[in-house]
Design goal:
It holds the Pfam family Semialdhyde_dh. Its main location: cytoplasm. It is found in: Cytoplasm. 33% of the residues lie in helices and 20% in strands. It is an alpha/beta fold. The chain folds into 2 domains: 6-121 and 293-304, Rossmann fold (3-Layer(aba) Sandwich), CATH 3.40.50.720; 123-289, 2-Layer Sandwich (Dihydrodipicolinate Reductase, domain 2), CATH 3.30.360.10. The strands form 2 sheets. It has a 7-stranded mixed beta sheet with strand order 8-9-7-10-13-12-11. A 6-stranded parallel beta sheet has the order 2-1-3-4-6-5, sandwiched between helices. Bound molecules: NADPH dihydro-nicotinamide-adenine-dinucleotide phosphate and N-acetyl-L-glutamyl 5-phosphate. N-acetyl-L-glutamyl 5-phosphate binds at residues 89, 122-123, 153, 157-158, 162, 203, 205, 287, 291-292.
C-alpha cells in the first residue's frame, strides 16, 4: 500500500457516501472520485475500483452486489483488487465477510484489520447488538431469550427518497413501520447478537432528520436467576471500557433522540424500576454517525492501517 492509500466511494453523492467523504478529510487518504455524470457507468466505476486500495460501497443492495462482482472481475483478469467496505444490507450475514462492528468482541478489530471484505453494520443493529451481545457473552441473558426491540430513527435513515418526501411534502410526524415483523435488519441482529430466536422488532421514524434510540424491555425474571440491573450495567461497562465511541451512561427518566447528532458516539443505558423487576436497555446514536458514516470511518481506519493526522 502506498504512503497515502486511495479510497473510491461508489455512491459518493448519496446520504451515507457524503457523510463518509466529509469524515475522510480527517484521515491521511486520497479520495478518487469519478465525473458525477458517469457515476453509474460500469466502465468508469471499474476504472476507479482498479485505482483504489479500498472501495466503499454506499449503494442500494442490488448495486452493491453488482459492484462486488465488478471487483471479482478485476481479480479474475489478474488486476490488483481493492479491499471492500460495504454499507448496504447485502453482506452483513454473508460467509467470507467480516462484520464491521469493532466493539463486537476483543478479536473484532484485528479481524477487520485483516479482512478484504467488511460489512458496515445497519443503524438499528448497531444499537441492538451493542446492548445484547455483552449480556449473552457474560451468561446473564440466555441465547433463547424472547427479545423485543423498539426503535425510532430520524428520516435520513430512509436515504434520499425519504429525505425528499419528508422535506418537500412534510412527511408524517411519527410512524411505526416494519409491522410485517420481517425487517431487513433481523437476520443481522440475530446472527451477531448470538440470539437463537428471531426478535420482535418495531422500528419507527419521526419528522426529524437525524438521531436514533433503540430500546429493549426486559422482564428481569426471564434472565438468568438472580441477575440484577447492576449486573447488566457492569457487563456493558466491562465490554466498552476501552472503546472511544461507545460509553455506558447514567440512567435518565427522559431520553431525547437527536442529542448525539453530529457525533460518532453511542450511549448505552440500563433503566430499572426500584424493585428491579423491569429494565429497559437503551442505545442512543446518530443514525448517520455511529449508525452509518462514523462506523465506516472506524472500519476504513482499521482496514487501511491509518489514523487521524
Ligand atoms: N441512510 C442511512 O442512515 C443508512 C444507509 N445505509 C445503507 O447505505 C446504502 C446507501 O444508502 P443511502 O446513502 O441512505 O442512500 P441514498 O439513496 O441517499 O444514496 C444512494 C446513492 O447511490 C447511487 N446509486 C444508486 N444506484 C447506483 C448504481 N447502480 N451505481 C452507482 N451509484 C448508484 C444513488 O444515485 P441516485 O440518487 O442518482 O439514484 C445515490 O447517490 C444503502 O444500502 C443503505 O441501506 C447504511 C446505514 C445507514
Ligand atoms: C428510517 C429508515 O427507513 N431506516 C432504514 C434503515 C436505515 C439503515 O441504517 O439501515 P441500512 O444500513 O440497512 O440501510 C430502514 O428501516 O430500512
Amino acid at each position: 500500500m502506498s504512503a497515502e492509500p486511495v479510497v473510491f466511494i461508489d455512491g459518493e453523492a448519496g446520504t451515507t457516501g457524503l457523510g463518509i467523504r466529509e469524515r475522510l478529510r480527517a484521515l491521511p487518504v486520497r479520495i478518487h472520485s469519478i465525473d458525477p455524470a458517469r457515476r453509474k457507468e460500469t466502465q468508469a466505476r471499474a476504472e476507479a475500483m482498479a485505482a483504489a486500495d479500498l472501495v466503499v460501497l454506499c449503494l442500494p443492495d442490488a448495486a452493491s452486489k453488482e459492484a462486488v462482482e465488478m471487483v471479482e472481475g478485476l481479480a479474475a483478469s489478474g488486476q490488483r483488487t481493492p479491499k471492500i467496505l460495504d454499507a448496504s444490507t447485502a453482506f452483513r450475514t454473508a460467509p467470507g465477510w467480516v462484520y464491521g462492528f469493532p466493539e463486537l468482541s476483543e478479536d473484532q478489530p484485528e479481524a477487520i484489520r485483516q479482512a478484504s471484505r467488511v460489512a458496515n453494520p445497519g443503524c438499528y443493529p448497531t444499537g441492538a447488538i451493542a446492548l445484547l451481545r455483552p449480556l449473552i457473552d457474560a451468561g446473564l441473558m440466555k441465547p433463547d431469550f424472547p427479545v423485543t426491540i423498539n426503535a425510532v430513527s430520524g428520516y435520513t435513515g430512509g436515504g434520499r427518497t425519504m429525505i425528499e418526501t419528508q422535506e418537500k411534502e412534510g412527511g408524517p410526524a411519527f410512524m411505526l413501520y416494519g409491522l410485517g415483523l420481517a425487517h431487513k435488519h433481523l437476520p443481522e441482529i440475530r446472527q451477531h447478537a448470538l440470539l437463537e430466536k428471531r426478535p420482535i422488532f418495531v422500528p419507527s421514524v419521526g419528522h426529524f432528520p437525524r438521531g436514533m434510540i433503540v430500546s429493549i424491555p426486559v422482564h428481569m425474571d426471564l434472565l438468568v436467576k438472580g441477575t440484577t440491573a447492576a449486573d447488566l450495567r457492569r457487563a456493558l461497562e466491562e465490554r466498552y471500557v476501552t472503546s472511544s465511541f461507545v460509553r455506558v451512561c447514567k440512567a435518565e427518566n427522559t431520553l431525547v433522540a437527536d442529542a448525539l447528532v453530529g457525533s460518532d458516539d453511542m450511549e448505552l443505558r440500563v433503566h430499572a424500576d426500584e424493585a428491579n423487576t423491569h429494565v429497559v436497555l437503551t442505545a442512543r446514536l446518530d443514525n448517520l454517525g455511529k449508525g452509518a458514516s462514523g462506523a465506516a470511518i472506524q472500519n476504513i481506519a482499521l482496514m487501511l492501517g491509518v489514523s487521524p493526522a
